[in-house]
């Protein structure tokens, strides 16, 4: 077994985790970043190409940009947090110069806003190494370690190639394991199984906004290629060749889901302009890969399409953020990127398209810096006793064995991936899903276990069940429609619920609303 | 899913083993990849991007294994397409492979203005 110590442990090396490692190392901390896959290719940014929220530091422009996003956020976002991420995004991206080759437009202006994923994450890896961080690839974390006083003492995990254990003691820990994508075949999301959500909940953290988890992305059928730009020009047809009236993208996934529930759906991209077609391989080099290999010309031939569920990835829910440094409810534990709730900056709608990557970049740096500061103040405390606190999938409560992690995974997926269950939520089906997930969770907690490297699969299955359960409880608990959470039985917005909703607990899940800002103000006046 | 390692091209650098995010490959003694866990492949094409020898072929189907014909794939010119179109390595200085990713925002805007488009909407990049 490998035993290491550090000031700061970062779990997850996607966009948020790599920014966290850079910031913590620059603040003088000894940093170890552990990544389930490879820091540079893993996570949903590496396979995509994020545009950031990019607004010049002109007070009027910034205010207007925030105002535009506050309306869809439906009362759940906070303009101060939005201003903070705008500011840090603007000053951070140019610092990648030297590691990322920024393009220049016709007028000679550097284009910082949108970066290609593989190049961006390759640059982040180099930046983190240059800052002095240690990166351990193929070292997934399985569980957190906790001190007697409840604070987090590091983590334990395994080395994928050998199945051996590692333990890392650290003064502070940053969770940046991404969102929970439910293995829907969303591009680059297979590792995003909600491990961080489960680990944090075991330590007592609250989770917020899990009902905002209905995003989907279009892809050619049987592929992962969720690169949606060209579909902004798409037309759709059924098996008989009749056009299906679906409004143009990007915000038409509910209509696409409704069509897919009726039968196969075919897409025509004949409206994509000639010059865009020619430039596409240079804009999105992976978009054409699947077509070329199938021998299909997407601009002249119709092809079958599907939707890939995104779970919480381009939703907005995640670990509750308790302070301005991205601390969670658990001392010594920070959350960044899609692991954290993005309601603060996106509210009730998807933060995809600009806000999520600005949040990952910003929350990563705040969490990294604050973790370094905490470690400096409190020390590594690595001589003190610390207890591993993982349960489901690791330490069965009853007779171990008899459960196949892949079967468990499929059973969880069956409650959160079918389009009708996600896009057309209603009390009756949510209650039935919650019942089935309750049984599945019980079985998982009681019996699921594996040996060696297979422990990862078992733990991922447990995390998938846990997150599916929270999503379902949260969707049932928000008895209205708001933002991306749509209930067919309660289609209107109800102002009594203009607040963030928390889900808590593993043994028993409870939901409660954080007190709305307006109510707090009224109480203060009254007292 | 990954279906093919072209042994005649592979130089045993192990880059693919290192960068695969889902641990699909084992490393053979000579550094070459062994397709050990194909069912874990997330069809992300990252291994192809990092293979300087263009020796890997990821089939587009992420749901089912598909048979592949090595000779046909070698003849198709498909190997190395991602690395080439990305302008990596030996293609880096080629102006026809420049990174035009930043134009995405403009493309969305054009789609919104096009006949049947949604009109000027919020700028959107993916
Ligand atoms: C197709 C697509 C397009 C997008 N486009 C945009 C856009 O244009 N603009 C925008 O703002 N946002 C966009 N987003 C969202 C944006 O990509 C995410 O918000 C961002 O990647 C979040 O970064 P992250 O580090 O939190 O998660 P990720 O980048 O997903 O990284 C999470 C990392 O944690 C690792 N990990 C997981 N579990 C463990 C474990 N147990 N131990 C160790 N490591 C672990 C994973 O392997 C992964 O590398 C897009 C998302 C998708 C899917
Ligand atoms: S990256 Fe390519 S050349 Fe290197 S080991 Fe893998 S297949 Fe062989
Ligand atoms: S496509 Fe992605 S997951 Fe599959 S082998 Fe290649 S790098 Fe690994």
TrEMBL record, chain A:
It comes from the Bacteria. InterPro entries: FAD-dep_OxRdtase_2_FAD-bd, FAD/NAD-bd_sf, Fum_R/Succ_DH_flav-like_C_sf, Fum_Rdtase/Succ_DH_flav-like_C, NadB. Keywords: FAD, Flavoprotein, Oxidoreductase. It catalyses: L-aspartate + O2 = iminosuccinate + H2O2. The keyword NAD does not apply. Its cofactor is FAD. Residues 7-56, 88-216 form the FAD-dependent oxidoreductase 2 FAD-binding domain. The keyword Ribonucleoprotein does not apply. GO terms for biological process: NAD+ biosynthetic process. This is Oxidoreductase. GO terms for molecular function: L-aspartate oxidase activity. Residues 424-503 form the Fumarate reductase/succinate dehydrogenase flavoprotein-like C-terminal domain. The lineage of its organism: Bacteria, Pseudomonadati, Pseudomonadota, Alphaproteobacteria, Hyphomicrobiales.
UniProtKB/TrEMBL annotation, chain B:
It holds the Pfam family Fer4_10. Residues 1-30, 31-61 form the 4Fe-4S ferredoxin-type domain. InterPro entries: 4Fe4S_Fe-S-bd (IPR017896), 4Fe4S_Fe_S_CS (IPR017900). Transmembrane segments: none annotated. The keyword Transport does not apply. It comes from the Bacteria. Keywords: Iron, Iron-sulfur, Metal-binding. GO terms for molecular function: iron-sulfur cluster binding; metal ion binding. This is 4Fe-4S ferredoxin-type domain-containing protein. It comes from Prosthecodimorpha hirschii.
């Amino acid at each position: 077994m490998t035993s290491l110590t550090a000031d700061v442990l970062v779990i997850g090396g996607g966009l948020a985790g790599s920014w966290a490692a850079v910031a913590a190392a620059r603040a003088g901390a000894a940093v170890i970043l552990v990544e389930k896959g490879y820091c540079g290719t893993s996570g949903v940014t590496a396979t995509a190409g994020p545009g950031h929220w990019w607004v010049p530091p002109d007070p009027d422009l910034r205010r207007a940009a925030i105002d535009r996003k506050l309306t869809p956020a439906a009362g759940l976002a906070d303009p101060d947090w939005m201003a903070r991420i705008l500011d840090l995004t603007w000053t951070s991206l140019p610092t990648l110069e030297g590691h990322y080759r920024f393009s220049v437009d016709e007028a000679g202006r550097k284009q910082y806003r949108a970066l290609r994923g593989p190049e961006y994450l390759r640059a982040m890896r180099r930046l983190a190494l240059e800052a002095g961080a240690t990166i351990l690839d193929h070292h997934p974390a399985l569980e957190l370690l906790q001190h007697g006083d409840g604070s987090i003492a590091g983590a334990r995990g395994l080395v994928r190639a050998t199945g051996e254990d590692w333990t890392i003691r650290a003064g502070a820990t940053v969770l940046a394991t991404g969102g929970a994508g439910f293995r829907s075949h969303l591009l680059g999301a297979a590792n995003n199984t909600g491990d961080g959500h489960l680990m944090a909940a075991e330590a007592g953290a609250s989770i917020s906004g899990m009902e905002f988890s209905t995003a989907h992305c279009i892809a050619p059928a049987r592929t992962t290629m969720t690169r949606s730009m060209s579909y902004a020009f798409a037309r759709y047809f059924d098996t008989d060749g009749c056009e299906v009236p679906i409004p143009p993208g990007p915000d038409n996934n509910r209509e696409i889901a409704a069509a897919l529930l009726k039968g196969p759906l075919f897409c025509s991209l004949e409206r994509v302009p000639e010059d865009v077609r020619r430039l596409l391989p240079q804009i999105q080099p992976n978009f054409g890969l699947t077509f070329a290999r199938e021998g299909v010309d997407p601009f002249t031939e119709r092809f079958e399409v599907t939707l890939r569920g995104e779970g919480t990835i381009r939703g907005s829910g995640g670990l509750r953020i308790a302070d301005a440094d991205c601390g969670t409810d658990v001392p010594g534990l920070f959350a960044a990127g899609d692991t954290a709730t993005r309601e603060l900056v996106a509210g009730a709608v998807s933060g995809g398209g600009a806000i999520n990557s600005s949040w990952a970049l910003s929350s990563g740096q705040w969490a990294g810096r604050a973790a370094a500061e905490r470690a400096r103040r409190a020390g590594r405390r690595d001589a003190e006793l610390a207890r591993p606190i993982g349960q489901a999938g690791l330490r069965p409560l009853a007779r171990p064995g008899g459960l196949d992690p892949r079967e468990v995974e499929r059973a969880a997926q069956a409650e959160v991936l079918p389009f009708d269950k996600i896009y057309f939520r209603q009390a009756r089906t949510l209650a039935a899903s919650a019942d089935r997930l309750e049984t599945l969770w019980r079985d998982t907690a009681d019996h699921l276990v594996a040996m060696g490297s297979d422990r990862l699969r078992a733990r991922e299955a447990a995390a998938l069940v846990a997150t599916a359960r929270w999503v379902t409880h949260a969707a049932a608990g928000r008895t209205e429609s708001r933002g991306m959470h749509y209930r067919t039985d309660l289609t209107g917005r109800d102002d009594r619920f203009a607040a963030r909703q928390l889900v808590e607990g593993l043994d028993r899940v409870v939901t409660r609303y954080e007190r709305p800002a307006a109510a707090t103000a009224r109480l203060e006046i009254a007292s | 899913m990954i279906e093919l390692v072209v042994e005649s091209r592979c130089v045993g650098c192990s880059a693919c083993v290192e960068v695969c995010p889902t641990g699909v490959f084992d490393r053979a003694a000579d550094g070459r990849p062994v397709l050990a866990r194909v069912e874990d492949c997330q069809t992300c094409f990252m291994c192809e991007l990092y293979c300087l020898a263009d020796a890997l072929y990821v089939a587009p189907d992420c749901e089912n294994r598909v048979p592949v014909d090595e000779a046909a794939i070698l003849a198709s010119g498909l190997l190395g397409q991602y690395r080439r179109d990305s302008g990596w390595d030996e293609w880096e200085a080629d102006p026809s492979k420049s990174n035009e990713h930043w134009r995405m925002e403009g493309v969305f805007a054009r789609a919104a203005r096009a006949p049947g488009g949604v009109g000027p909407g919020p700028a959107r990049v993916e």
